[in-house]
Structures are given as C-alpha cells and as structure tokens.
Write a structure and sequence with these properties.
- By secondary structure, the chain is mainly alpha-helical.
- Helices cover about 70% and strands about 0% of the residues.
- The chain is built from 4 helices and no strands.
- It is globular.
Length: about 90
C-alpha cells in the first residue's frame, strides 16, 4: 500500500533541503516515517496481518540505518529532523 500522491508530495515539499530535492536523507527518512505511520494505522485494525507486520519491521530497520548515516554525516540536521518528526534518537552502534 503505497503513500497517496498528495501526502508524498507534501512530505517532500516540507523536508527538502533545496528545490528539486527528492532523494536526500532527510526526505527519505520523512517518507519512510509517513509510510510507517500508515502501516501502523492499518495494523491497529488488522492485527493478524503478519505480512504487513514484516514489511513494517523491514521499513523501520531501513529508516534506522538511514538515520545512523545522517547522524554520522550531519548531527545538527539529524537532530533537527528527529525533533520535527517526533521520533526517538538512534543510539550509535
């Protein structure tokens, strides 16, 4: 279940770093967060949907790895992003 086009374009517009930016780490993390919220809402009503549960766990892992990358490259942008998204900080390994 992909994101709605309007939601995706709004997220890209809110989190881009410059005009035409669709692939920066900030945008990717924000898009993953939107999909995680969508799948979490789906799982609240369909508790036994184990395929979606697995997809959610894989998506959370991808987001976590990308957050670690952003943390290593630009700690201030990382902290601003997690504050804006309202997610917990990734502990470095």
């Amino acid at each position: 279940m992909p994101l709605d086009k309007q939601i995706k374009s709004k997220v890209i517009e809110d989190y881009r770093t410059k005009d035409g930016d669709t692939g920066s780490a900030e945008v990717q993390i924000a898009l993953m967060q939107a999909r995680i919220a969508q799948i979490t809402d789906h799982l609240r009503t369909h508790k036994k949907d184990f395929h979606s549960t697995r997809g959610l766990l894989l998506l959370v892992g991808k987001r976590r790895r990308l957050e670690g990358y952003l943390r290593r490259k630009d700690i201030t942008a990382y902290r601003a992003l997690i504050q804006k998204l309202g997610i917990r900080e990734v502990k470095p390994r």
